Amino acid sequence: MTSGRARRRARWALFAAATATAACMSAAPAQAQPFPPMCADGWEATTLVAGVGNLENLDSDGAGGFYVTGITDGFLAHLAADGTFEKLVTGLDNPAGVRTAGRSVYFLTGDGVTAAPGTLQRYDLDTRAVTVLRTGLNGPDGVLLLPDGDLLISTIGVTGLPGGISRYRPATGEFTERWSPLSLTNGLALAPDGRSIYTDNLTMRIFRVPLDAPGDPQVVASFPELLAVPDDMEATRDGTLYVADHGVGGVYRVDPATGTNCAIITGLIKPPDPIRMPPDGATSVRIARDGEAWALFVTSMDGTLRRLRPPPGIDLTPADAGRR
Questions:
Q1: Is 89:98 a contact under the CB 8 Å cutoff?
Q2: Whole-prediction pTM value?
C-alpha cells in the first residue's frame, strides 16, 4: 500500500505539472501583481483546536461543532462545541471530503492522485455503524450535498480511466460515474441559484457547472500564480466564493462575476521538512453559525481548525442557508 506521504508527494508533483501547463497556456504575460493580493483588514482569526493531525476536510454538525477528517492519521473525528475532540472512526485510508445529512455523516477515503481505489462511506450518528456505499472511486477528494439529497463526488485520481465528478443518490443507491467529465476536480460548492455548482481543479481554475448541463462547465476565475493551489470552498448567498488555498495556506475571497480574488488570511501552513515535499496549507472552508451570526471555519494541514470572523459589512450568509 502506498504511504500517505508518498501520495501527498505525488499530488504535489501533479500540482506542479498542472501549474506548468497552465502557465504555458497563458496568453501574453500580465503586469506583475503582488501575490497574493490581500483584503485581510478586520478579519479575526481564532484557533478552535490544534495539534490533531493533518486535517483535510470539515462540515458543521449543526450544533456548534464539526466533523473533520485527518488524511495522514486516517480518522473521522468530531469536535464538539465545548472543545471535546473525539475520533469516531480510525484506520481509514486517506480520508477526505465529509458532509452531514440528518443523522448521517458521509465521508470519502482514498484521496490522492495515485491512491488505491477510494470509497464513499456513511457513519450513522445513532448506532455509530459505518457502511461502505461505493468502492472503486478514482482518488475521491471533495463531496457536496445537493438540495435534492444527492451527493456529488470530485476526483483527482489519474489511475485507470480519466476522473470527473460523480453523482450518488443515497435514497436509491443510484450512481452516475463521471456525471460531469471535468477532470482533476477538488473543491465543491453550491451556487446561490441552487441550479449550479462551483468546483476547482488542478489547472488552478474555478468553474461553474450547471446541474442540468454538467458537461458544459464555464471558467469563472483562475489563479495564474505558481503557488496557488485552490482546494475546497464555500459560496455565500450574494455569490462570493471563499476558497482554501493549499499552496500558501490562505483563504481567498473570489468574485465569480469578475474573476477577481484576494486573500483574507495567509500563513495557515505546515512548513516542509526533509522528508515531505512542499509545504501543506489550508484544505477546506465552511460557513457555519457563530452565535447569531455566520463565520468561516478553516481546516489546514498544520493540524488546526480556525474560526474567521468577518469585519462589519461582510455578509457570510451561505448559499444554502435555508437548509442550515
A1: no
A2: 0.90
pLDDT tens figures, 33-70: 556 789 999 999 999 999 999 999 999 999 999 999 99
Enumerate helices (H) and strands (E) in the chain, giving the number of each: 1, 24
- Among 156, 153, 150, 152, which residue's Cα sits nearest to residue 170? 150
* Unique residue bearing C-alpha cell 502557465: 23
What SS3 class is residue 309?
strand
Q: Could you tell me the CA-to-CA distances from 270 to 31, 246, 252, 301 in Å, in that order?
A: 30, 10, 18, 6
Q: What is the pLDDT, as a whole number, of residue 172? A: 98
Give Cβ neighbours of residue 314 (< 8 Å, ≥ 6 apart). 42
**Rounded-to-integer distance, Cα 122 and Cα 27, Å:** 45
pLDDT at 114: 66
| Alpha-carbon dihedral sign for residues 110, 143, 18, 300 | negative
